[in-house]
Amino acid sequence: MFVVNPTFPQSCAAPAVAASPATPWLIAWAAVGVFALLLVGSARGDALLGVTLPFWLVGAPLVDLVWVERVRIGRWLAANASPRLHHRRHPAVRYQPRGPRRLASMRRRNSAMMRR
């Protein structure tokens, strides 16, 4: 018996990227950190801790969240970027030598002398 596996043309659209299982945990970590900073005064940092505790409560999970979701963020930015952000090509600027005209005439004169 013959079995045919049909193949369908792939779409040109980029495949969807599934959310990471760490994403909800990172969002919860950042939310708990924000509430801890708002409600617990000593969590905001002092002379002993500096800003390390606020960083680990809020900054680190946000940085991790951006890293985990970088592909999705990049696609969203590419889809929603304004036309002003696209690189525009400008015509090449011709090189115009700056400096005294005397040097240019000396170069011309010397080049004729060197050809002899």
Quaternary state of the chains: single chain
Termini gap: 89 Å
Gross morphology: flat
Helix content: 40-55%
What Rg is obtained from the alpha carbons, in whole angstroms?
31 Å
Going by helix content, strand content and strand pairing, the class is mainly alpha
Sequence of secondary-structure elements? HHHH
Structural notes for this entry:
- By secondary structure, the protein is mainly α.
- It has a domain at 46-79.
- It has four helices and no strands.
- The longest helix has 17 residues, at 23-39.
- The N and C termini lie far apart (89 Å).
- The model has no long low-confidence stretch (mean pLDDT 76).
Features of the shown structure:
116 residues, 0% strand, mainly alpha, 4 helices
Task: List the topology elements.
Layout: H1 23-39, H2 52-68, H3 70-80, H4 101-115
Helix pairs in contact: 1-2
Task: Briefly summarize what is shown.
The chain is built from 4 helices and no strands. The protein is mainly alpha-helical and 116 residues long. It is flat.
